[in-house]
Each structure stands twice: as structure tokens, then as C-alpha cells.
């Protein structure tokens, strides 16, 4: 079925959007699964744990650095063809890591995966928006990006269990094969969508001069840096709070993330500015609450609320970015995605440095300051987000 026919319908093409959410499910597994298996991978590759951490860093760096130029170069490519090429790259990346004879080859495989991720994240939402009615494009983005939440809640723990029990090679091989299966389904079921002709309107330089896009890039950097910085060291937060355990915290966080996605699907097309401001308000309350309060039932509520604030970050900011441009959505989203990835690195590094100097309370206050800054900027510019 052609994209024009799909767009003319009043209802969303749910099966196609769910297939696209399966892609983001796999993409987030490619990014996060090595984090849970890092000790196992370090032993298997005969390197120190700190050196094995480069497998995470090189993926994020390749994604952040290569995303914008590659999205710009491929803006005219057929969306389906490009997606199939990227899925093949993800699968090859994981096959390389799974069969790597040494650490250097594994780094090459991870770098390839990062390059594919930097190109995929901006284009998958732009592709999905072409299949949805104009009045429901935010919901389409939320459904597609909902695969991230499902991947973090279900996929990562499952493959971490497989990796710890059967070895990291088995877990990563399973991931590589599942991606190939998704690629086959995409080949048969996703519609072909032409790319955009290269023009000044969809060039990176035009996006860099678009004040609305730059505003969302800044808001992304502040919100993602605060949230991912704290989440990277959730074990330290749980320990310093005297909370029963990280598994319970992650469970409540995951439930909150699922609630967040459900709320966004319902509200994002009508109340985008409210949702965006809500990210900051909720995050501020949670982090200041963690820093000040110690009652267990309040901490339970805090982890749940944090998940609600966190779960739709990607959907809300990518939808906000798309509203700032009339063409070149993928290029604009690539700029936002680069901010997202650099912010993860900045947040993790900054939070780690604060923990070295003190305890998690200082880190929580610093995260709250970032969110307060973002909240003030969002309130002043709320009309631009509508």
C-alpha cells in the first residue's frame, strides 16, 4: 500500500508502526546489551574491565559523530532501501563482535554498529511519519520509539541472562539473527518511500540556522544529560538511599516508562508542550526528592515517577524537532540525535566525576540544576513547541 493512501486514512497503520518499533527494540539492544555483559566480555577477550568499556564508548562516539553527515548524504535515498541496508549493517556488526578473535576486531564491529545507529534513529521516525495522518504523527513516533522502552524493560535483561549463562557470543549471535529476521519482514511488508531531493531547505547548515531546531537540541542536551547521568550510576543512588535493591528500582522505573509511552500515545499530538515541560518538572521533583527524602514508600513513588518522566524522552524531543521544519525532518532529527548521544557521554562523565568527589546527593542536585535550566528555557519558548 502506498504512503499516500496510508496518510489519507484517519487511522494509524498500527501493524507497520509495530514492525518499526521492533526495529528500535533491536537497535536499543545493540546499544545496551554489551553494558550488561561487560565483565563477561572482558574475561572472554582477555582485557581489563575499564578497557572493555571502550566497546560502549566507541559505539556512542561513532553514532554521535557520523549521524548528521550520513543522514545528510542519504537524504535522497529510498527510505526502505536505506533501512534494509542499515539493518544489514547492524546484523553484520553483531556477527563481527560475536566471532571477533580479539578486542580490536570487536571494537571495529561496535564502531560499525554505532555508525548504523547514528543514521537509523533520525530516519526511522521520519519514515514512520510519512505513513501516518498529519494529525497523528506524534502518536506514530511514540509507537515507533516505544520499542526503546520495551527493549530496556524486557530485551536487555533477557539477553543479559543468556549472555551470563551461555556466554556473550551466544547472546550477541541471537541478536544478529533476530535483526536479520526483522529485515526480512521489513522487505516484505514496509512500503517503499522515496527520499527527499537534496536542497538548501534540508541541508545541515539550514538546520543549524533554524532557531526552533537549535532550541530542541539544547532542551534535549539538558534533559538527557541529567537523566542518563543519574541512570548510569543508579546502583550508587540505590546504595546511598538505603533502598532495598537495584532490581526493585529498575522494575518500578520500567513500569513508569511503560505508563509514559501510553500517556504520550494518547496526548502527544494535542499537548506536546505540556508533555515536554512535564519531563522537566517531574525530573526535578524526583531528583530533589531523592536528595532530601529517605522513606521507602516515597522512594518507590520516586522511581515510578522517574520512569514516567524518562520513558518518552526520545518520542517527545523527536516530535518537537519535526514540528520546527517543513522539510528535511530526518536531517533535523539527526542534529537532535547527535545532541542526545553527546549528552549521554557528557552526563555519564560529569556524574562520574561528581561521584568521585562526593556521593550521589551532589550528583542528584547537579542533575536537578540542569533540569531547572531546561524548564525555564522551555517555559519561555513553549509556544514554539506547539
UniProtKB/TrEMBL annotation:
Residues 16-385 form the Major facilitator superfamily (MFS) profile domain. The chain crosses the membrane at residues 12-34, 54-75, 82-101, 107-128, 140-162, 168-191, 212-234, 246-265, 272-290, 296-317, 329-350, 362-380. Keywords: Cell membrane, Membrane, Transmembrane, Transmembrane helix, Transport. It is found in: Cell membrane. The keyword Lyase does not apply. It comes from the Bacteria. The keyword Ribonucleoprotein does not apply. Pfam families: MFS_1. Gene3D superfamilies: MFS general substrate transporter like domains. It is a multi-pass membrane protein. PANTHER family: CHLORAMPHENICOL EFFLUX PUMP RV0191, PURINE EFFLUX PUMP PBUE. This is MFS transporter. It comes from Amygdalobacter indicium.
Amino acid at each position: 500500500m502506498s504512503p499516500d493512501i496510508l496518510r489519507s486514512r484517519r487511522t494509524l497503520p498500527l501493524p507497520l508502526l509495530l514492525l518499526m518499533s521492533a526495529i528500535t527494540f533491536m537497535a536499543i539492544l545493540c546499544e545496551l546489551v554489551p553494558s550488561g555483559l561487560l565483565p563477561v566480555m572482558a574475561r572472554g577477550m582477555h582485557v581489563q574491565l575499564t578497557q572493555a568499556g571502550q566497546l560502549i564508548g566507541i559505539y556512542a562516539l561513532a553514532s554521535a559523530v557520523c549521524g548528521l553527515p550520513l543522514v545528510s548524504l542519504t537524504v535522497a535515498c529510498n527510505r526502505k532501501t536505506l533501512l534494509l541496508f542499515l539493518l544489514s549493517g547492524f546484523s553484520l556488526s553483531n556477527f563481527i563482535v560475536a566471532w571477533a578473535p580479539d578486542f580490536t576486531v570487536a571494537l571495529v564491529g561496535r564502531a560499525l554498529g554505532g555508525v548504523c545507529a547514528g543514521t537509523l534513529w533520525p530516519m526511522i521516525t521520519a519514515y514512520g511519519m510519512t505513513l501516518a495522518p498529519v494529525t497523528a504523527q506524534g502518536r506514530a513516533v511514540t509507537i515507533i520509539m516505544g520499542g526503546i522502552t520495551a527493549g530496556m524493560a524486557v530485551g536487555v535483561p533477557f539477553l543479559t541472562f543468556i549472555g551470563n549463562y551461555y556466554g556473550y557470543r551466544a547472546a550477541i549471535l541471537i541478536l544478529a539473527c533476530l535483526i536479520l529476521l526483522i529485515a526480512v519482514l521489513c522487505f516484505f511488508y514496509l512500503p517503499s518511500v522515496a527520499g527527499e531531493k537534496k536542497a538548501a531547505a534540508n541541508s545541515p547548515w539550514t538546520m543549524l540556522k533554524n532557531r526552533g531546531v537549535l532550541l530542541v537540541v539544547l532542551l534535549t542536551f539538558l534533559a538527557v544529560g541529567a537523566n542518563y547521568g543519574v541512570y548510569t550510576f543508579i546502583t550508587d543512588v540505590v546504595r546511598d538511599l538505603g533502598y532495598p535493591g537495584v532490581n526493585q528500582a529498575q522494575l518500578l522505573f520500567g513500569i513508569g516508562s511503560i505508563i509514559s509511552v501510553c500517556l504520550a500515545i494518547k496526548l502527544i499530538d494535542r499537548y506536546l508542550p505540556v508533555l515536554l515541560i512535564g519531563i522537566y518538572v517531574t525530573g526535578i521533583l524526583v531528583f530533589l526528592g531523592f536528595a532530601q527524602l529517605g522513606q521507602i514508600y516515597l522512594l518507590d513513588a520516586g522511581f515510578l515517577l522517574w520512569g514516567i518522566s524518562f520513558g518518552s524522552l526520545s518520542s517527545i524531543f523527536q516530535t518537537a524537532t519535526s514540528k520546527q521544519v517543513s522539510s528535511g525532518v530526518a536531517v533535523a532529527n539527526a542534529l537532535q540525535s547527535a545532541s542526545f548521544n553527546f549528552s549521554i557521554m557528557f552526563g555519564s562523565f560529569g556524574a562520574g566525576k561528581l561521584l568521585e568527589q562526593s556521593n550521589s546527593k551532589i550528583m542528584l542536585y547537579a542533575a536537578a540544576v540542569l533540569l531547572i535550566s531546561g524548564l525555564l528555557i522551555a517555559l519561555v519558548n513553549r509556544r514554539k513547541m506547539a
